[in-house]
Structures are given as structure tokens and as C-alpha cells.
Amino acid sequence: MINLEHLHPPPGCGHVTAYENDGRLRALHVTEALETTKKWLGGQFIEVTVGQEPVRTAHSKQEAREAFSAHTETPWQRVMFAYYEEGWEASLQEMIKGKDEGSLYQVASTMASVILKVCGIIAKAQALLPSPKRSGSSANTPLVLRGSGGSIVSVAWHPHTNTLAAVFCDDTVRVFAAGRSITPLLKHRLQKSITHIAWMPYSASLMAVGCECGVLLWTLDPVNVVTRPSGSCVSLLAHPSATPINSLTWHPKGNLFACVGGSNSQLVVWDVGREASVVVHSGTGGNISLVLWSPDSSRLFVAYSSKIMRVFETRSWTYEQWSLESPIQSAVWSSLGHLLLFVTQDDPVLYYLGFIPGEGVGGTQVAAQVADLTQTLVSDEDGEEVSVGGPVKQLAWDIRSERLAIVFRDTEFVVLFHTHTHPTLHLAPGGLIRGEPCQVPVSVSFQKNLPNGAVLSVVWSSGQVQHIPMRYSSREPLPSTLNTSTFNTSIRTTHNSILNCSVPLNTSMGYAGSPVTSPLIGGIFTSP
Amino acid sequence: MKPEDLFSSEVLLWRYVRALACLLLLQVVAPMAVCNLYHTVVAQRILNPITVTTNLLTSCIYPTKLLRLVVPAACFVILARVHIKSYTVSAWVPLNRWEKWRRVLSLTVILRSGLIMIACALLANFYTSLAHPDFPFLVIPCTPGDVMCYKRKTVIIYMGAYVGYHYAYKYFMLNGNLITPTPAHPRKLQLIKASLSLRSTREACNTHGANKLSFLCAICIYMAAAIMINLIYDGNWQEWLVIFDLPLMMMTLLATVLLAISLSLFSQVFHIFITEPVEIPVATAEDSNPEAETDSWRLSNALSSSGLLQLLAFWDLKTLASSDPMNFARRTQVFCISQPGGHPRNWMGIMNPSMNLIRKFCERLKRHNCPEDLPKPPVVPAGAASAPTDVNKNEVVKPPPVPFKERAVKLIMSLKRYPFFGYFLSDLPDATNRSIFAEALPVIWAVQALGDLVTASFTEDKFGVVQRNIPDILMAFTQLQKVVDGLGRVTISRRPGTGEALPSELQLRKALRFSLRSALYTVTTTFGDTVLAMPVSAECQSKLQSYLQFKEG
User: Fold this and answer.
1) Which alpha helices (DSSP H) does A98-178 contain, by range?
2) Whose CA is closest to A41, among A398, A470, A475, A433?
3) In what order do the strands lie in the sheet with A163-168?
4) Which residues of A touch B521 (CB under 8 A)?
5) CB within 8 Å: A314 and B190
6) In angstroms, rounded to a whole number, what is the distance separating the alpha carbons of residues B78 and B269?
7) Phi, psi of B169 (to 5 degrees)
8) Which residues make Cβ contacts (< 8 Å) with residue A395, sequence separation at least 6?
9) Which residue from A253, A274, A279 is facing B323, i.e. has the nearest CB?
């Protein structure tokens, strides 16, 4: 099994990973790195900038009243004002706040606290029932995109064009396109606590933003020059069983999307054109944290916050379930939809599941371990010891499944593997990506419309977005150009090799990097 | 045998039977069994499982119990009959107010609404009798001295009929009878489970007149009617005030809520069973025999049919065309050629009905919105059309008599000038377009399916059966898109987050624009610059160019 010690030493402090050439990552000084990237990408380079206006974090909004000086009203007046402004509950809260105001007020204050306690108990009892009126703003929504101090928290590439959408920490989205000076700002009163953004496939203009109130569908005319699209460009798709949105995924053809949300385990599929929805699964398992539609559209991966994951086949929506030792943190499908890589929250190990086409889900019973990502100390090019690996935050696989980027929760390097899925899965070490000193990667995303090579966009904790071009000749064809008959046989071979372990896994084609590849080891996860 | 008849006898009939059986099980047998179980275990404290089971079985086949089951069963059969006869696959859009009134006053609607109301009144009585023994069952006559008995019955029957009227109005006038397949088709049990959720129940109560306001309104109408009747017949109207007792009110409320839930569940379960997807074979064994009957059960015939069969056939075609590897075998059949002869029969059998549907739809839209774009009918030479005339003759040839239909149209046009008639006869805004778009669902699926099949042909079509028709398909798409885009934006706009839903026909209009764009993008992205080399019109080519550059939003 491949591990992080097989990787090339990372660049020294003060150097930034700039590009990949000849299968090796190259590092340069900060200014040189940017210049080289610009030169490599030419007219396709997109500079993601914040602009002049300050970006305020949406999660630390201060109350306007805190800006004013102390008030001089009587307690009763304060109670009345609280009632007028925020309702009876706030007035009761205000009543409790006042102290030493006389016996009558004390009695009223005690009564108010009793009423509030009773209300709290009723609310707790109601929370146990599946009430349709429960508001979506539950406390346990850890998936809201948050940066580590920077203004940009995530980026999403358009599947067909050189367009990049960046989520800012003030719950706005800006759209950057190569060769266009206009960067539309998407802002709406309903767009709060963004958890996920995704461009619709086979469309130039549609983007889904998963947030607290549901999914907001933005229609951005590509030839429009408006910098601030109006509210008429948005439509809200909200299903009470899936708000606030935890995760959403587009059907590879783009006319449907699946979303999950709230604290229930219901899986909702939307027809975007008709704005019609259907709950395709509602069962036990806790709330769902992640959904991913396979690129061949036949399967849907669903990760639960409990220790299970399911893969549905999308014809009659039956599923196969795998039990885990820790909840899923991140997962990615291969370009042909026959392999799934995933990591759990606690284990620093990369797991793999294979699928065979045919009736039903067709997943292998046991997940195999393909890479050990345990935190280790490695020496950088300057000879200094640095820590890499540990619990994983995010996985990203490029469109042809040739480069796999892994972002860790605690360390400042992005790990890059060279991968090969056809006919069997192989991992080869790619290298370690380093940013400016003291910068931690927040999220990564691969550009999706490249005919050759790859571009990895890394969002650093400072809010800076760095593009790392990777130049190599592609071995894997794009999914759309692959003949299905060869596809079927190839997957069957893969499946057999995993079950029987008869095919020598080290016979991969030689990579430009290290010759170390990853033998597959049977994992601990079993399907019932 | 025609595919429609085959579909009705082989598929639909069994769906009706299964839906009815499921409803009876869900709404009558299961609740009664649970009540019996509760009575045996909790009230009688019998815990032996064998005794409990035998008790349950004997109680179910007990004659009085069976007799009780007859009434709800009959009600469900009546409701099912009305639903089977009245469902539609395209929304009804009235062109003017007169059409609305004509529908309200039509004998069929009145008769069917009456049947729904009777069934609801009976069901309300059944639920009341189940809930409380003090409220006697309908078949048991009231004792002569019991004044309350009669009044209770009338109140409950009235409320049942009121909910029934509410439902019937929504069903017939507000497109409650419209059935459209859901975006995805999980197992039926899952769909039924979702329709049994607390949220659906609450929605059902609000929709079908079991909410507080509606209840109060109904009671007020009832009281007013009762007092009026008493005043007319010189009775003591204060007698009617006795219905204001708490148990009766609670019972009525309970019966109304149960009825609303029943009706909602009925319509949802019916919808789930009817719209279940059907897999129609692309080619049958008869295909090899050219002398076999042509109207057999196959996809090309089903696509050319109408109504529900056509809708489900296009759904099946859309599923077949999708990129899912599970449909690979069926897609292979589409791209294969006949042996001997080498004709692409299966592809043509799919393409022709789909293209006809798209073209006809486009023509209908053009005829209404831009008639000048329609191709002109061939001009007949003047000499050939006019009768041979002799200039020396003094007799004038009489003009042909004006047909009755034209005269009626002229009369209506003249009546429109008067304000009273104008109110009823003038066209509602955008009504014609809306009525056309109400039938757009099969067109949308045809567009998606053709787009996907053309895309799939890029890698899967070994004999090149599709490539000859790609230019026609692309031209039809761009033409339809031009017409649909030319209509401008949807007139009714809504703010996101307000919870308002667009009427189904306007939603379909949006969906058609959406699927046309998506289909064209799918084709241009897959074929790349090759599409520009296809023999298409200049207008279509410029459109394809902008699609290739991702400039169509």
C-alpha cells in the first residue's frame, strides 16, 4: 500500500508549488510562480480577486443595536419594545434580564422564566417528532462552507467553460471567466449559510447554490454584462425534507439533481425544468452529509453522519449498504463511474470500492485500502522536517481520473497522486503542494474542460486562489468518447482482480514519477 | 389489436385493481385490524399470540364486520370509477370565462361531483361510526324519540358532502385530475410512505377543506340553511342549536379530517399506480415477419398513440436514451438494422413519431403567434379556381352558402362587443399559448430522448443509422427554440421563497426551453465542431456556433 513517505520531498519554506511537468511538481518563488502560471495558462488564466470592497464574514454578524450606547428606558418599556420588535418570546427574555426593579417586576420575571422553561421543554418534545413546521436552522449543520480567516472559502469550475465560481465568506458568490473583466456578484436575501455550489452540466448559465433555505438556481446569461444579477435570475427549489441543504449533486446529463439536508435522512430528487420533486428514499441512518451522482448516471453515493454509507442504483432506487468504523468525510467517483474512492473522518486511509455494471448496485463486498495517509514527518528540500498527512478534509479527482488531490485537516500540504483506473486502479506518488509560508489549504478543485493535462485550483487560508497547471499526456479517454462495449469488459476484469487478487497489481505502465504503486489490501468494511 | 386497447386491457386494468386493493388495505383493513388488536391485547388483556391471531381472523370474517366493510369498499369503488373516467395527462386551460362556466355546469362534471359527494358523505358516516358507538351507523334507523340522532346524522353527512364538494371542485376545475409521472421512480412503497408523512397529511387537510376556517364556514352555512328551512316550514329553529354540543363537534371534526386524509391518499395512491413506468419493447419477434400485424405492442406504435400511453411511451424512450449503462442493450436495438434488407426500422420507428410531435407542436405555436412564418399553401391558378363564365350572360352566379360554423363564429364575434357578453366570451390573457403548452410534456421528453440518442450514437451507432437524420433533428430543435423564445418571458412572475408555484402549463413552458437548450448543448459538446459541417440552414448553423461557444444562456 502506498504511503506518504513514497512522495518526493516538498519544496522548502519560501517556495511555492507552481506547476507539474514531466510528472514532477516544480516549486518557485512566489512572484515567479504566479508569472509562470500566467505564462503557462495564457489567455485561460483566471485571477480570482476580492476587489476593493471589504468582505465581512457572514457567521460573525453583529447586532446593529450593539453599536449604540446604553439605553435609559424603564424595564417595562424595554419589555414593550422587545415585544414590538421581536415578539413575545424576546419580551419574556428581556423581562428576565432586568434585576432589582421592585417586587412586582421580580414576580413577573420569575413567571417569565418559568414560561420560557416550559416552552423550551415543549420545543424539545416537538423536536423528537418529525414535525413539518420545524425550521431548517438546526444547530447541527457543520457542513457550511467556512474559510480559515480568508475571504474565499471554495471554488467550483464550470464543467465545459473556463468559468470559475468562488464562494465568499459573506455568503456571496462571484463568477470569474477567462477573458472577461466583469465578475457577476450573486447575492440574495435567501442565500445564507452556503454549503455547496455546483454548475449544471450541459448548460452555460445555470448554477445551483445549496444554502439554508434550499437550493437557489441562478441563471446567468453568458453574454450579459450585468455585474449584479437581479432577483429575477433566481428560483428557489426547497423541499421541507431537505432544508437546510447539506449536499447536492447534479445528474451527469443535468436535468435532475439530488439533494439532502436537515436532520432527516430523506433523499430528494428534483426535475429542474418542471420544478417537481420526489423523495426517493427515506429511512434510518441519521442525517445525510454527502451525495454524489456517478458520472455514468447509474449510481448515487450517499454518506450518512452515522457509520454507514449507501450506494443507490438510480433505476428503481434500491441500495447496497456498507458499515464503517467512522463516518465518511469525503468521496469521489472515477470518470467512468466504476470506482469510488473515499476517506472517513477518523482513519487517515484512502479506501476504494469497485462496481460492476448490470442489474442492481453491483458493489464489491469489501472496501480495499489503497493509500496510507497517516501523519508522518518528512524532510523538505531545505532539510527541514515538516509534517504531512493525517485526517483528510477533502478529496478531488480530475475529470479523467489521472490526478488525485488530497487536502488534510491539520497539515499545510496538498498531496497529489498520479492515478490510473483502466484496466485496474493504480496510485503513484505525485508530490506535495506547498503554498506561501503559514498558508493552509482550505479546498481544492480541478478544472473540468481541459482536453489534456489538468489545472488544480487551491484555495489557501489567506483567501488566495492558486492555479497549478499540470502538463502530461493523458492516458485515459474522456468518459463520453469511450466505447461502452470495451467499458463493460474492462470493469469486469477490474472486479475479478479485486475479488481474487489474481492479477498482479504492480504491472502498471511506468509513470514518470516513482515506480511505487499501490497493492490493494482487503479492508475492514463489509456489506451486509 | 391496437396498442391503446392492449394497454388498457393488459396494463391499465391491473393497475386500477392493484390501486384499489392497496387503498382498501391501507385505509380500511389495516386500521380495523389495528383497532381489533388493540381491543384484544389492551382491553381484554389477552397476550397469547395464537389467541390474538385467531381473534383477529375471526373478527375479520365476522358477518357484521364484513357488512361494515361493504360501505367503505363501495365508496372507494365509486371514487375509483370517477377517477378512472376523469384523469387527464394535460392540464385544462379555459380560453374564456364562458368555457369555465360551461365546465362547471356540464352534466358530466355535476354527475361526477355528485358521486364524489355521496361517497364522501358515506365515508364520513363510516368513520364516525368507527370512532364512537354513540353515533349510530347510517343503516341503523333512529329511534322515534331521539331528536339528536337525526340532527347528528345530517351534520356529519353534510360535512362529508362539503369536503367532497371541495375535493370535486379542485379535481375538476383546478386540474386536480392531472397526472404526470414523478422525476424519478423509486419503489411504490417508498412513494406511498412519503405520501403518508405528517407534512402531506397536514397539506391534505388544508387543501381538502378540513381546516379551521373552512370548518367554521361550513357550520355557519349549515346553520343558516337549517334556520331558513325552519322559518319557511314554521318549525322551532332553536331546536337546531342543540347540535352545538362538544362531542358532536369533535366527532365531526375527526370525521372531516379523516375524510380529507382519505381523499388525499386516494388521489396520491391512484397517481402512483397509474404513472408507474412501463417498459415497451423496441422491436418484437414479429418484426422479422413482415406479414405480421403492424399494430402490435411496440414502442413506435405506442409513441404514435395518445393520452397516457403516449406519455408513458415517451418516458420509456427517455429512460432508454439516457446514458445509464443498464439501458445499453435496449439502445443497441435502436441502432441495429433489419436483416435482411438493412433498414433502420427501429430507429425510424422512434424518430418519426418523435419528430412529428415536435414539428406539430412547433406548427401550432407558429400558427397562433407568428402565422406569417408558416409556409403558405400552394396558390391555385385563378383560372382553374373560378367557374367558366360567359360575359354575355346576364345571370349572376349565386355565392355559395356560408356554413353554419362560420356564421356562429361571426355571431359570437359580434356579441363580444357588448360588455356583458364580452365578459364571458373575450379571451383570457395568453390562454391559447397556455393551452398549447399544457400538452408539452411528451414534447419535452421527445426532445430529451432525441438529444440523448443522437449523443449516444456518437459511440454506439455502429451502422450509422442516426447520422442521416441529425441535421433534421437539430433544425427542428433550433426552430422550436426560436418559436418558444420568441414568445417572450412568462407573464406570471413570482418571487423566490414565497412558496407560490407556477401553473403547470407555464412550468412546462420553462421546462421546454430548458430541455431544448440542454439537448442542443449535449449534442454540440459531444460532436464538437463536426456539427458545423452538417447540411443545416444558415440560421441553424449560427445557432449551433453559439452553442459550441457556450453563449446560449
Assistant:
1) 103-128
2) A470
3) A152-157, A163-168, A173-177, A185-186
4) 160, 202-204
5) no
6) 16
7) -60, -45
8) A330, A331, A332, A341, A342, A343, A350, A404, A405, A406, A407
9) A253
Helix spans in A129-250 (H): none
- Determine whether the interchain pair B496/A240 forms a contact, defined as Cβ–Cβ distance below 8 Å: no
C-alpha cell at B311: 406519455
Residue B497: exposure state from Cβ atoms within 10 A (0-12, 13-18, ≥19): middle
CA pseudo-torsion sign A29, A30, A35, A40: positive
Is A488 within 8 Å of B325 when comparing Cβ atoms?
A: yes
Return the residue of A nearest to B326 by Cα.
Answer: A358
The interface residues of chain A toward chain B in range 208-227, judged by CB-CB distance below 8 A, are 213, 216, 219-224
Long-range contacts of A342-350 (CB under 8 A, 24+ apart): A342/A303, A342/A309, A342/A367, A342/A395, A343/A373, A343/A392, A343/A395, A343/A406, A345/A391, A346/A391, A348/A372, A348/A373, A348/A374, A348/A375, A348/A389, A348/A390, A348/A391, A348/A392, A349/A373, A349/A374, A350/A392, A350/A395, A350/A406, A350/A427
Say what the pLDDT of residue B158 is.
85
pLDDT digits (tens, 9 = 90+) for B32-86: 777 777 777 777 777 788 888 887 777 766 777 777 778 888 999 999 999 999 9
Confirm if A30 and A435 have CB atoms less than 8 A apart: no
The nearest CA of chain B is from the CA of A225 a distance in Å of 13
Cis omega (within 30 of 0) on the bond before B281? no
* Residue B205 vs residues B201, B212, B248, B449: alpha-carbon distances, Å: 6, 10, 19, 39
In percent, the amount of chain B with pLDDT more than 70 equals 84
If phi > 0 it is left, if psi is from -120 to 50 it is alpha, else beta; for residue A244 that is: beta
Which of A:140-159 have CB within 8 Å of B? none
Distance in angstroms (rounded) separating the CA atoms of residues A189 and A211: 11
A253 vs B324: CB contact, 8 Å cut-off?
Answer: no
Global confidence as pTM: 0.83
Q: Cα angle at A491 between A490 and A493, to 5 degrees?
A: 70
Does the beta carbon of A132 lie under 8 angstroms from any beta carbon of chain B? yes
Q: How far apart are CA A427 and CA A405, in angstroms?
A: 12
Q: Which of A252, A278, A318 sits opposite B323 (nearest CB)?
A: A252
Residue A138: Cβ-neighbour burial (10 angstroms; 0-12, 13-18, 19+): middle
3-state secondary structure of A14: coil
pLDDT tens-digit profile of A133-156? Answer: 444 333 343 445 555 556 888 999
Sign of the torsion formed by the C-alpha atoms of B310, B292, B347 and B537 = negative
**A452 close contact with B: CB closer than 8 A:** no
Is residue A282 less than 8 Å (CB to CB) from chain B?
yes
Pairing type for strands A2-3 and A366-372 reads parallel
Whether complex ipTM tops 0.85 = yes
Inform me whether the C-beta atom of residue A254 falls under 8 Å from chain B C-beta atoms: yes
User: CA of A405 to nearest chain B CA: how many angstroms apart?
Assistant: 27
Q: Measure the CA–CA gap between B553 and B551, rounded to whole angstroms.
A: 6
Q: Residue B412 corresponds to which cell in the numbers above? A: 359570437
Cβ contact B187–A317 (<8 Å): yes
Question: Cα–Cα distance between A382 and B341 in angstroms, integer?
Answer: 74
CB contact under 8 A, A222 and B552: yes
Q: Are A93 and A116 in contact (CB under 8 A)?
A: yes
